[in-house]
Amino acid sequence: MESEDLRTHLRRRLSTALRDQDRPGTSALRSALAALDNAEAVQPAEDFRPEVSEHFAGGVAGLGAAEAQRRVLDAESQRAIVKAEIDGRLAAAETYDQHGQNARGAELRLGADVLLAVLDSTA
Q: Considering the chain, what is the average pLDDT of its residues?
């Protein structure tokens, strides 16, 4: 259940950030949730060739033809992904500061702080 707790905390905090119009927090939380979703995605097998639909560009024919079971991340993996999001935001903030864009760097740090608070609350 702990793996669900982090995603639940991120979503709950996102609702609060949206209500409070916290732009840096909203951006960071959405980014972390997207990173978790992306990490759960499964690459199709190289020999997978679904029947292409003649009616829709990029579509496949057959019920469930494009469906795949997603990976399940354990709590440690989820925390590592969110930690990587924090580290990425802090590194980008440093780069912005070096180029004189301190306001953007500060926004990224605020987002990193929001994510760190979520990680601390689920520890």
A: 85
Q: Is residue 111 part of a domain?
A: yes
Q: Residue 93 sits in a domain of what CATH number?
A: 1.10.1510
Q: Residue 12: which domain range?
A: 2-41+72-121
Question: What is the distance between the alpha carbons of residues 123 and 28, in angstroms, rounded to a whole number?
Answer: 19
What are the helix (H) ranges across 1-123? 2-19, 23-40, 75-98, 102-121
SS3 62: coil
pLDDT tens, position by position, 61-111: 555 555 567 788 999 999 999 999 999 999 999 999 999 999 999 999 999
Contact status, residue 94 vs residue 62, Cβ threshold 8 Å: no
Contact 82, 3 (CB under 8 A): no
Q: Burial level of 14, CB count in 10 A (0-12/13-18/19+)? A: buried
Calculated CA dihedral for residues 73, 76, 108, 111, nearest 10 degrees? 80
- Domain total in the chain: 1
